[in-house]
Structures are given as structure tokens and as C-alpha cells.
Amino acid sequence: MWDQLAELISTPIDGFPIHLTFVDSCFRPGKADTLPLNRVYEFCRRFPKRVRPTKGSSAPMRVPLLLSKIEVNRSGKAAKFGLDLVRLDTDHRKCLVHERLRWPSETPGAWNVPVGIDDDYCHQIVSEARVRSPTGRREWIRRSKNNHFLDCEAMLAATSYLMNMQRVSQPREREATARTNENPPPPNDVPPTHRNFPRAPRRIVRSGHLGV
């Protein structure tokens, strides 16, 4: 399974490479008594620049995403080049996914899916509901057993946030900027050496000595 995942993230999609991948660290295949090693961390160490483990937070976080070192050096301090664990605000990310479902399709950033999506994918996206508990706290209640695609889409939104994709301009804005750079408007200001300053009136000085 892990070799298949390694091949998947190393294969470009329509010519575009995968720059960042999140893997849920709570998913540990095998039993703890027979498989003590955390396979997720071991897999992320194989691709330290492109794959990072994640862990969701059930409590609200100060920011939607936090990076923390999970490895220490001999002094007990965080290793400078250790593995980064990405802490995610689960409520924030799942709310983001469900909010986009209600946006009009023509709105920039609206929810769009590729051709070939089946009913199982759609059911998993809405497999959880956000409700208010008796204590007033917001909680996500699972409606069906399979909710993997919802978790994947929530982590996908987190990867785009970490890569600053929310700051990428729309295609029309990029095209307008490119046209402006190719054909810059003529400068309004002419260099001082070429300016046509108004000529000052000539002052005629009459000399009484010459009788003029």
C-alpha cells in the first residue's frame, strides 16, 4: 500500500507534479501490538519536502493551521531538520468544505469536481453534520460510517492554505497584468532635460548713458 502511495504522489497529473501531500497520522494500518512502528511517520521521512503528517484538533485552535517539530536532538530540543507535524483545526476545515458547496458555481473558489465523480464520493462529502451540543459547543456528528473523502477534502483545503493558494489571482487578472507588462503605457512625465519650459520674457535694459 505504501509503495503504491509513493508511486501515486510521484506521478504528475496532466503534466503537473504534486508539490505537497498531507497524510493523516492517526491512520495506522496494523495492530499496535504487532506493528509498533508508526508507518505514517516513516513514510513521511521518505519525502521530507513533499509529504507531511497531520493531526486534527477537536478543540478550536487559535489559527487554522500550526506546524510543530515532533523529533528532538540529543539535548532534548526540537530537531532543526526534524519532521514537521501539521496540526489542523478540524471544525474550520470541514466548515470551509461545506460552505463552498453552497456557493454559486460561477463564483471564483466555488466547489467544482471533475467528471466521473460517483455517488459514493458525494455521500461521503456530506457524511457528517455540524450540530450544537447541549453544552453549546459545536460538534461534527457522523451520519454514515465512511467519511474518508470529507477528511481528504478538508486536508486538501489545508494544503492549499499552506501553499498560499488563496493569494493567487484569478486568470482574468493575470492576463490583464501580463498584457500591461508586455505593452506598458507611455510615461506621462518627460525627463527634465527634454521638457519644454515656457520661455521667460526678455528684459530690455535701457542705458541713459548712450541716450537710447
From TrEMBL:
Residues in the signal sequence: none
GO molecular function: endonuclease activity
Region called Disordered, residue ranges: 167-212
Residue ranges annotated for the Terminase large subunit GpA endonuclease domain, each copy included: 38-167
InterPro entries named in the record: GpA_endonuclease
Pfam family, one: GpA_nuclease
Basic residues: bias regions: 196-206
Protein name: Terminase large subunit GpA endonuclease domain-containing protein
Organism from which the protein derives: Bradyrhizobium lablabi
